[in-house]
Amino acid sequence: MRPNRTSISSLALIIALALAPAIAAQGFLRPPRAVPEVDPWVGTWHGTAEETDANGAAVSYPVHFVVAKQDSRYTARAEAELMLRDDSNRPVTVRYRGEFDGTLDAGSLQLTSRRLEMEIVETGQRIPVSTQRIVASLEQGAFVGRAGNDDEGWASFRCQKENAAPVPAPGPGPSPMPGPFPGPGPSTTAASLAPPIDPMFALVPGADGLRAPENIRPGTRMTFWLGTANTVGAAGRSTVHEDPNGPFRDENGRSLRLDEVPTGGAAAGYQEIDVIAVTDTAVVMDVRHYDGDGTVQPPSPGSVTSLVCHPSGCEYWVHPHVLAHLPTGERDGLNIVRGQYQHNGRTFRAVMIQVKSSSSSSANVYDLDTGLQISFSATMRSSATRNEFDPSTGRYGPATSTDSTIVVSQWVHVRALNLPWAQTPLPTTFDGRTLRYQGAQTLDMGVAPPSSTPFQASITIHAIGGGLTRQELVANLGGNVVRLESYSSPAQFGALIVAPAALATLRPGQEIDYDPVTHDRTVVEHIGPDVSGVAVVVIASRGRGGLRRWVYDARSGVLLEGLTQQQFGQPVITTGLSIRLLSS
Asked: Distance from the CA of 147 to the CA of which of 122, 129, 131, 424 falls in 20 to 30 A?
């Protein structure tokens, strides 16, 4: 998988960015005890990494390092988070965490990973990663370098030390304080919002000119159950790492420690796909992830990404005309089969699309009548080389094993949302304006006072047409600056702007929506003045696993305050983000 540009919708974009560093607050980024900060390398560093994706576009994402020193050796803990698309083109949030060690050589810090894993945030799945290196230097007090390897490529990074004065990057670059996108930005119209057609769907004559099917309209919600598991080929065996405090010593006098390779893991949750806008050339959707499916953990609302696809279809639905005319048969790893499919006591006329390669296989099953995805399954395999210990010989050396990841998704429910503001036109006065917010991301482990990280964001709004807007966001969480795009429309939960005329029709206690799968209930919580006397409308969505609250100015319709909370685990851990409008 390689990074791909993914947008995040409105307030959910802010939330998704802010929840990323929760691991840092849990202690992952705390320096080891009894390591005094005796040189400029040692400490906690935050910044941004950049690399080039498969399409040649630059991708940036936040990174964190904790560097410590014992004797002449350095250790570092590292974390990075970015948006990717998996082998089935599904948007996922991936967090990398690793431990590195090495030495300082001629002013350059040379570190090699001794433990590194990739976590898919939406599912909790963790996958070991091949050996990576960090090569860094200090430039005017900034921690600057690159991370990666020659086989998979390198990412460059630039960080500043926690609690240190900001160190500007040479030349133009991201500022520690968020501001609008540089320049006016490219204009987007309904006609210019035209994503490319899937090459497979292009096999059908005329598919490129199709418009979205009748059942794919603003307000359509599709819900899927999603489960994932991974197995580690080296599970149960031990890997060897150099460690000055390790209990073992080899024939060369090096201190070592043994770590058992994890057996893998599994997780389950839901995906909600909300259609928020349909044009002649595009369908715009919100993809919301829920951690937990209610069997072990209550569904807890997680990240939301925006997905823009061609009217002929995407991974979650395909135009029935395309399904009816796809050529059947097997060729070049692609197999298309028609038949009947049993699901939840129903029999569907179905089309199955199988894709196979040397390292993965997947199968999508679609309802021929509606085009909705009924089932999805995929298996991905990767080879990992680890420095393993052989107890039969007492020696260690590199060994390669195969790790596997299994993903299963099944259709659960489809319905039409009936949001009272969905059909009311938005004010045009916000076109080209920038909204600025500030707030804090918090983490409450239940055993100590909650931790808090300051957050700031600016969002510039560009009208596309038909109530659809494109939003350019610059966000700063604890010194990490990120720039992203999003889309918003009236047919959406948590939009930045709701038409004042629609807000005026609401009444206190009114139920806006109830979801039968996640059991989230959305109601009008308050109408009237807030503590400062401003007339507001407060809308809240509560479920067993979390809370989302939006406070709108009753006169302008702009979002004044937002709050999101996730609860998970035993004992209960609560993560949250609260924001408030500074200026507009």
From this structure: 122
